[in-house]
Structures are given as structure tokens and as C-alpha cells.
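Morning, I've got a small favour to ask if you have a moment. I owe you a coffee for this, so here goes:
>
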Amino acid sequence: MESGKELSGTLMLAVFTAVLGSFQYGYSLGVINAPQKIIETHYGRVLNVLPNESLLLNGTEARVLHPSVTMYWSLSVSIFSIGGMVSSFLVGWVGDSLGRIKGMFTVNILAVVGGLLMGLAKMGPAHILVIAGRAVMGFYCGLSSGLVPMYIGEIAPTAYRGALGTLHQLAIVTGILISQVIGLDFLLGNDIMWPVLLGLSGAPSILQSVLLLICPESPRYLYIKLGKEEEAKKTLKRFKGEYDTTKDIAEMQKEKEEAMKESKVSLLQLIRSPSYRQPLFVALMLHLSQQFSGVNAIFYYSTAIFTTAGVGQPVYATIGVGVINTILTMVSVLIVDKAGRRNLFLIGLTGMCLCAIMMTVGLVLLSTYSWMSYISMTAIFLFVSFFEIGPGPIPWFIVAELFSQGPRPAALALAGCCNWTSNFIIGMCFPYIEALCGSYVFIIFAVMLFGFTMFTYFRVPETKGKTFEEISSEFRRRRHAPPSGPKTATELELLERSTDA
């Protein structure tokens, strides 16, 4: 939607409504951590492998968990990612068959069901209800994390495409922060209220469902997918006010004509097509760099480092990390359309690589110099800051910029599955890798970050304000293939679209 660059009230309402799904995703990611020991204790009581009295003495763990408790707790955490991995493949089908608005509205049923299962955990076998609720919630988040960027990418004016796309990540980190705060033991993170804490995972979906009733459908979906020109014009005016829609409709018509030249792009066709190979490889690598950067491992290790540093309440230091997470994402929202995607991604990866080395030095020398713990603390805060500048928010919306209307749903589905799978692998493997490598564990992430930095420098094009033709030309230039012959024409034909995507 090139001709209108203003941020209307309707547009902002639609974006806010959409990112409520992202907020719910972030809340679900973070909410399970705070009440871990309390929930493990309750599992033990339900399974009759722990005595009824409290097993925490003076705030420290005073027992070794029964293997069955460990198994059910690990499943409670990991099943969320498994649900997301499975449902991410359905993003394209849901988005195309139901539409962006109806799709988000329908999948909210899953969020409500998941929230109720966890909220009622004490009324039945808690371990079964929590695992079932987390599985359903993960299935919801896998769909939502694809539908939200898809909708925002299609309704955002080109001039604000990056900033509005970054709001997806801002909502995620805000959800994580809120879950950390209300998960404090004097609020909801206690033996009485923990089911309410988990059950609130589904609460934002109720508000979102109400607001979706007054949000316009994506004009691009209405015109290109459904062929409803008059409805598309009305929707454009709802987003931009009264204006001449001729230019926007002409651009969408051009994109529709190009899309009609190619058959429907399935996941298998997307993977096999040489014309999509370069942008798909870039999209997947950016999502891999987000998860294999070690940021989840940093959050996993932060409490232990803060404790070693002598912080009396390490949970508050962890919340401090969450606050920095949120603030730096806000900064990214403000600068992403000025500094560019590629520059911010390179700055973020380079800074994270140096922080991982800094973290390793601090951990290795901690036993010799106690003040090295503060070096590690500083590295944590800087690591998170660099992550939210680029590698955190950018992968979520850049996929919509790399692909046109035809392959976009399939590309978002594949990228989402890649992200969820990587998240699951890191969550499951990091404790074992840390046990094997000890203080040198973050050297692995430093090496990977260096590799991702080199890949970004040599292979990732800048997409800020560019058409698909310009992005396609950049891919050809970077692989040193001069445009010639029928293959180049085909590639251009598939990738060239309007600047509105």
C-alpha cells in the first residue's frame, strides 16, 4: 500500500489487535519458568512420590527429584515447542482458507481451551492437564506466530513496514516480561495461585477476539486471493481514509496477474523451485541464527550467574534482563526503517559474538577472580541488548519482504517450523551440552554467531523499501551470476512484485 504512508487509527488498532497474539506467545514462553519448583512439588504429590509437606527449606532445594517428576516437568516445558512445530505447517492453509482475520479469530479457540486446561490443573491430575494445556497452547502459538506477521506485512505501508513488523517481537518480549513479574511468589507464582498464572495464558485471546470483529481484512487477501475488488477498496479506505485507491488497486492487480502465471505454491514446490531457493535459504538461516545464537541459553544460565555474583534476589535481576529486552526492542522499532534490516542484523550478531566470548572469559576465571562474575553479568545484559536490536525482531517480518503473495504463506510456515524446531533443540540439548563443556559452553555459540555474521554479510540483501525486482537482483549480484538468459527472466517473473508486500 504505497500511496498512503500515514498511520491511521484503524491501522494502529488492527496492528495492536494482531500483536495481542504475539503477546500471548511471549507470555506462554515465559510463564512456565517462575513457578517451576512449586509445580514440580505438586507433581510429586499427585504422583505420590513426594511427602505432602513442603520440600523447600530456607528457599533452597532440599531434595532430588523423582525421575517421573523430572520426566513430566520436562514434557510440560518441551510439549509447547512440539505443538508449535506441528501447527506452523498449517499457517499457510489457515491463512488462505479462512483469511487473516477469521484465521486469527478461529485459532483463539485453541488458546482459550489451553488456558482452561492449565487453569483447572488442581481439579484433576495436574501433570496431565498442564501438559495437555501446554500442547494446545503451543499449537495455537505456532499458528499465531505465522498469521500475525502475515497480516501486518500485508496491511503495513511500505515506509513503516519494518517498524510495524518489529511490533510482533516487541509484543513477545513484553509478554515474557509480564509473565516474569506476575510470576513472583507474592503475586501468582505460589502454591495456591500457580494454576491461575498458567491459565492466564489464554486471557489475551478473549480481548483479541472482540477487537478482531471490528478490524478490516487484509486488502491484498481480498483482492488477490478472493477477487473482491469493491471490498478491497472499502478496506483500503478504512485503513487510509477517503482517497483515490486507483494506484493501490493497480499495484495489487499487477501482483495478482503475476501470481496467476504460477501454480499454487506448496511447501514441496517452494523447497524444490530454483527460483525460490536463494530467498528461502536466507529466510531459514536468519531464523536459525535467532535461535542458535544462544539467547535462550543465556536466559537459562542467567539466574545461576546472578546468584554467583552475590545478588540476593536473582529473580529480580532476571526481570531486569526482561526489561532491557523490552526497551531495546522499542529502540529497534524506531530505527529499523532508518538503519536498515541488514545493518542492524550485522551489528546484533557481531555484538552477541563478542559478548559470548566475554561470557566465557568471565565463567572460566570466576573461580580465580570473584569479580569476574560481574563481567559475566555485564555480558548477559549486553548480549540481550544486541539480540533485540536485530536478530530478535527482524527474522519474523523479513520473510514477508522476501516473498510475494503466492509463496508467502508457505514460506512463513516453513520459516516458523524452522524457528520452533530450533527452539526445541536448544531447550532440550543445552543442559547436556553445558554439563559436557562446562564454562566453555558459550564458545560454541560464539563460533556459530561468527558463522552467522559472515553469512549475513555475504548473502543477506538489504530489503528496506525495495521492490521484489530489486531484492531479486541483489540475490543474483551476491552469487556473482549476471542476469542473462531465460532462467533469469523466470526468476524475475516469480519474484517481482509491488513494494507493498
About this structure: The radius of gyration is 23 Å. Strands lie at 56-57, 60-61. Confidence is low (pLDDT under 50) at residues 1-5, 52-62, 482-501. The first strand starts at residue 56 and ends at 57.
